[in-house]
Amino acid sequence: MRRTRIALVLGVLVALVAIACGQGPEGGSDRVASAGVLRVGTEGTYAPFSFHDGTTGALSGYDIDVARAVGDKLGVRTEFVETPWDSIFAALESDRFDVVANQVTITPERQAKYDLSKPYAVGEGVIVTRANDDSIKSVKDLAGKTTAQSVTSNWADVARQAGAKVEAVEGFTQAITLLNQGRVDATVNDSIAVFAYLATTNDTSVKIAAKTGQRSEQAFAARKGSGLLPGLNRAIDELGADGTLAKISQKYLKADASGATPQKGAAAPAPSTIKLILDNLWPMAKATITATIPLTAISFVIGLVIALGVALARMSSNRPLSAVARVYISIIRGTPLLVQLFLIFYALPELGLKIDPFPAAIIAFSLNVGGYAAEIIRSAISSIPKGQWEAAQTIGMKYPTTLRRIILPQASRVAVPPLSNTLISLVKDTSLASTILVTELLRTAQVAAAPTFEFFAMYGTAAAYYWVVCLALSFGQGRVEHRLERYVAR
Amino acid sequence: MSVPTLVTVADVTKSFGSNAVLKGVSFDVPTGSVTTIIGPSGSGKTTVLRSLNALERPDTGVITIGDVRVDFSTDIPETEFYRFRAQSGMVFQGHNLFPHKTVLQNVIEGPVIVQRRAVAEARADAVELLRSVGLEGKQDQYPYQLSGGQQQRVGIARALALKPKLMLFDEPTSALDPELVGEVLAVIKDLATQGWTMVIVTHEIRFAQQVADQVLFTDGGVVLESGPPSDVIGSPQQERTQQFLRRILDPL
């Protein structure tokens, strides 16, 4: 199956490194033979395929055992290099190791870029539902249901084609979480992933409800033209024939996923980068207009209202009120925005409060803006001379009127530049909403980038969109400042 | 002497922390009269004035302005303070005009927003008021576009626009360049001849002498000497008053 833990920033780095190292060294088979070592890149954090045994601490797992067995067949030592998945191909390109053994799924795109061996693990698409849900018995039953899928996976397409609504998630575990929380009805994935999940967690709240008919094949990946393929394929054939693969599969998955007859998919020509960008210009613009901008605007307005209330509470002579405001500001400013998002979206459901992605993002961003802008507003109000309050008092104004007509208009002039900073930060912060299933600009870019490996092009395009929005806001800031300064000597 | 009394101040005290600023101040202000308060810095004269509209709230004592009587030693509801404050208009040393509003907007803010008078009417009154303080044609300018003396005259117009029973001036010329003092004092003198009841804290002794019906000399938190200017300024009885006047009138 295709591992899909895509880190936002690392993706760009991978692309850059991959470009830099595109012309990697070749003649790997000679090097492996002469050094007597097969260097294997693997994650080491991906149970039960590549992980450190809880008791012994030794690197073990399905892929590890297969790689060791292959090394034995080739008559060389096996040396493992642990690398995060997100940069594993970049590391392969830069000759940090010879092959990747990390459940790399055979896809046309990958086949175009890498030497892929025969499969050593074969799975098939399965539909996972809650154990007590009997409404889904075949792919057809997915129509109208909601599924949680890694956007970068082919299973998302399977679900979509069956007529299901697809919620984008980061990985299988998150999909299962959403399934258990009742946020989605099903998730389509590879049987191997499901076996692995069930074998590691003993979770009985979910079940395999149906099969989709698609196969997925996992293989070793080497650099293009490495010359390693004949040896690898021969070794895999032998391990399949003598039952070693089946044994390894039973050991780690409690099921046979070794596969019998490898299938070859013809490599599809990869679309050009330019075409990919052009194809995604509108979807990304749409995501900006329908998600990023509304998210920013609504959160900012609500945030300012919260901020004004908190600022006034903080300045109040009522001690408990002031203390509450202080604590609020301290918590908001003292914890990461990403954690606040996760708390509201993933943790609150544990307390029985389930909020949809978009409102959850609005809540988190509004609270965050509230905390930061409160201090800006407080200092702006404090900067207005005491005489203005007194003059308003002497003409008979009460506190709210004074605030509204005398103090805030003047304070806003002081507050606009720092508040503009907050707003511009917020535009970019909305990208964090991609982690809680909001299909905003960055998420759209991720979806486009992941299956094509065009990280640089897609994230670059997203960056350009963010920049344009922020440019427009900076221009607006200039206009507002100019307007507010009409009563100030220049 | 059957002139009715507008303001009665009875035994007002005020401390800031351990510093007793007013130690029992009492005086009356007859309707239509001008009272000036003179005295050295720190003698409590500004605090007396600010007590008259409760910008400073005395600790004890009773102040009556018109039909509003406030006993500061009791708990006073906030609404009572608004009623009390509505009796007077205040002109500040530093004018405290609203910088984000034009001259006209400054003047009509109180009548329109607080007194809920019709905008057209308030505007007509304001234009007339501005003319009377010599600011014809300045109504659409912002305060920063005016000289210090003009700003102070807008401050006076803003206070007058509320049609208060009592006008309070807190050192209205102290922050001005010397050549601008005259135009502001002229406006205040003019108000005196129109019959406004005024209490003025000032350092301008000659002005106090000319305009006042009653002069209060404060020192050490009490009214040390009071009476018509011919007495208090012309022939002061108290040693401290004599010293103070000598220093002010003949600093060399």
Describe the structure.
The complex is a heterodimer of chains A (490) and B (252). Chain A has 490 residues and is an alpha/beta fold. Chain A has helices at 8-20, 28-35, 62-74, 88-93, 108-113, 154-161, 172-180, 191-201, 229-241, 244-253, 273-315, 319-334, 337-347, 357-382, 386-394, 399-429, 441-449, 455-484; strands at residues 37-42, 45-46, 50-52, 59-60, 77-82, 99-105, 114-130, 146-150, 165-169, 186-190, 206-223. A 6-stranded mixed β-sheet of chain A has the order 5-1-6-11-7-10. A 3-stranded antiparallel β-sheet of chain A has the order 2-3-4. In chain A, strands 8-9 form a two-stranded parallel sheet. In chain A, helix 6 (154-161) links the parallel strand 8 (146-150) and strand 9 (165-169). In chain A, 45% of the residues are buried. Mean pLDDT of chain A is 85; it is low at 1-26 and 260-268. Chain B has 252 residues and is α/β, with parallel strands linked by helices. Chain B has helices at residues 45-51, 78-85, 103-114, 119-132, 148-160, 178-193, 205-211, 229-234, 239-249; strands at residues 5-16, 19-30, 34-38, 60-65, 68-71, 88-91, 166-170, 197-201, 214-219, 222-227. In chain B, the strands form 2 sheets. In chain B, strands 6-7-8-3-9-10 form a 6-stranded mixed β-sheet, with helices on both faces. Chain B has a 4-stranded antiparallel β-sheet with strand order 2-1-4-5, covered by helices on one side. In chain B, helix 3 (103-114) packs across helix 4 and helix 3 packs parallel to helix 5 (148-160). Chain B is globular and about 50 Å long. Chain B starts with a strand and ends with a helix. At the A-B interface, helix 15 and helix 16 of A face strand 6 and helix 3 of B.
